[in-house]
Design goal:
The chain has 120 residues and is α/β, with parallel strands linked by helices. It contains 4 helices and 6 strands. Strand 3, helix 1 and strand 4 form a beta-alpha-beta unit. The mean pLDDT is 82.
């Protein structure tokens, strides 16, 4: 049995964009989902440590920028894991909106009020 570990997954060279997998005996949490199309790199990184998409139990998106949220909906489809994100971005993750709300740049990445977060 292993203890909890954090695995950095590089999405673009030089670590410009990366995601992080928190791996524990209870399952995995993916923190941020990378740019659109990142699910392939994340899948390969999971396989290297003997995991699959289904081992992801939660996807946490820290901010609704495309480099953090771009593959979240697709990874949710592949893993079955819910997305935890700011509630005002819910339609984007549910694919009911093509773009994020116009005020998203002014919102804090981590809501100060727990009611502002939503598991989708």
């Amino acid at each position: 049995m292993f203890e909890t570990e954090i695995i950095r997954i590089l999405i673009l060279p030089l670590g410009i964009i990366s995601t992080h997998l928190i791996r524990s005996p209870a399952g995995c949490i993916l923190v941020d989902a990378g740019i659109p199309g990142s699910e392939r790199k994340i899948g390969r990184a999971l396989a290297r440590v003997g995991l699959s998409y289904r081992d992801i139990k939660l996807i946490v998106v820290t901010q609704a920028h495309t480099d953090h949220a771009g593959s979240a909906a697709r990874l949710r489809d592949l893993s079955g894991a819910p997305i935890l994100a700011h509630r005002d971005d819910a339609d984007f993750y549910r694919r009911k909106a093509d773009d994020l709300p116009p005020d998203w740049p002014s919102r804090q990445a981590v809501p100060q009020n727990a009611d502002a977060a939503q598991c989708l």
